Amino acid sequence: MSLAMPQPDAAVLAKRAEIAADLRTIVPGEGVVEAPNEMRVFETDGLTAYRQLPLVVVLPETTQQVSRILRYCNERNIRVVPRGSGTSLSGGALPLADAVLLVMSRFNRILDIDYVNRCVIAQPGVTNLGISQAVEEERFYYAPDPSSQIACSIGGNVAENSGGVHCLKYGLTANNVLGVEMVLITGEVIRLGGKHLDSEGYDLLGVMTGSEGLLGVVTEVTVRILQRPEAARALLLGFPSSEQAGQCVAEIIGAGIIPGGMEMMDEPAIHAAEDFVQAGYPLDVEALLIVELDGPGPEIEHLIGQVEAIATDNGSTTCRISQSEEERLAFWAGRKAAFPAVGRISPDYYCMDGTIPRKELPRVLAGMREMSERYGLRVANVFHAGDGNLHPLILYDANIPGELAKAESFGNDILRLCVEVGGVLTGEHGVGVEKRDLMPVMFSQVDLDQQMRVKCAFDPNHLLNPGKVFPQLRRCAELGRMHIHAGKMPFPDIPRF
Length: 497
Description:
Layout: H1 10-14, H2 16-26, E1 32-33, H3 36-39, E2 56-58, H4 63-75, E3 79-83, E4 99-103, E5 110-114, E6 119-122, H5 128-135, E7 140-141, H6 154-160, H7 167-170, E8 177-183, E9 189-193, H8 204-208, E10 217-224, E11 226-227, E12 231-239, H9 242-254, E13 261-266, H10 267-277, E14 287-295, H11 297-313, E15 318-321, H12 325-336, H13 338-342, E16 348-351, E17 354-355, H14 361-375, E18 379-384, E19 389-390, E20 392-396, H15 403-420, H16 439-442, H17 445-458
Parallel strand pairs: 2-4, 3-4
Antiparallel strand pairs: 1-2, 5-6, 6-10, 7-11, 8-9, 8-10, 12-14, 12-15, 13-14, 13-18, 16-20, 17-19, 18-20
Helix pairs in contact: 9-11, 9-14, 14-15
């Protein structure tokens, strides 16, 4: 591992057997895993370039067990890495050698379905898709739908503020979570929000959503569910160039049209997805847009005409409009399977996640093409075009010495370009370890110190998921350090205690 991580605590490593035995008194039966071969399945998450066996794995089933585990670790200064389904693409669930890996997969029940208040209370191990399936008979669904929705957990979605195809119109996880129950590192159990629409006081729920396991462990989530729209239709639009497709995206939004979803794929991704799914994608285009419009039937018909006209003005050479629900789902099947499809054309790929202003799509796409030639690595683009959330897939072969490092440098340059044009380092995958050392590209030291102070308020000893998000490993006390110049303190006339 070329990545710098916190140095393992030798005293904790020496007590590994004792720690495992103590955890078994909290989670009896098969709730503790300590054999190296059995822990191998947990050594990485979706960012498979980095691997590390944890100290020990514990799989609690109740909030009380989570509370006791965290209190035990806090009292003994043992680090803890929370983990959901392990689908994180930023290394957010990467274990540490001296840390307890707290796996929440056994929290897999839906606790309450409340159609009157339009919400569902679920345990964090419930899959994203599982919530929609639980309410589909009443024509309700949960809007954020990451491509990994069949596997990713709702608790992990909260940790990373996950997005998805339909977040352009219906929002990210942060816009659809109403409340959480969470356990602090001290073992205290608190509730933020609930079934009510708004909460008083500081927006701690907003702070917790997207906190990547650094502030607490979620044990229950209350999410908003929506009624399915009256109708939905999708357009498949092909373009001779990615720049033309990007300009079409900007003009659709500029015209005041907010599609239910608007996704873009370039030629390598189109061919890979079509070979994998046979969705009927055109193979003679450089870029493909999938634009979904939902709502009342007459409104959809009107908007289809507008989108067609904008696409034609931007050089579209292909336009197919779904004529049935089966055809609409087929359009999306290729996009949803794009990541595994690309895995069939390259031994390895590195999935990036940056977000840019929509108007900068043509510039950034052109920049990535230049970088691809410079690095000698192919890139397949699959992304949420409507909200400017890019997912370039850098293709490489880890068996060739130096190619992983080259792919990482390529990815770093893409993210730097995103920030340069007014964007951000991540849209939904989180910072984790992947983008950690790029945080100073976007934030000043003052910014990072303020973020660290929030971390310190929840976890003063930095026991929760250390080594993630923040590029510099420091103690909370260092944030208040005083600058001494020429042997003198600032404002020497002020009384000090």
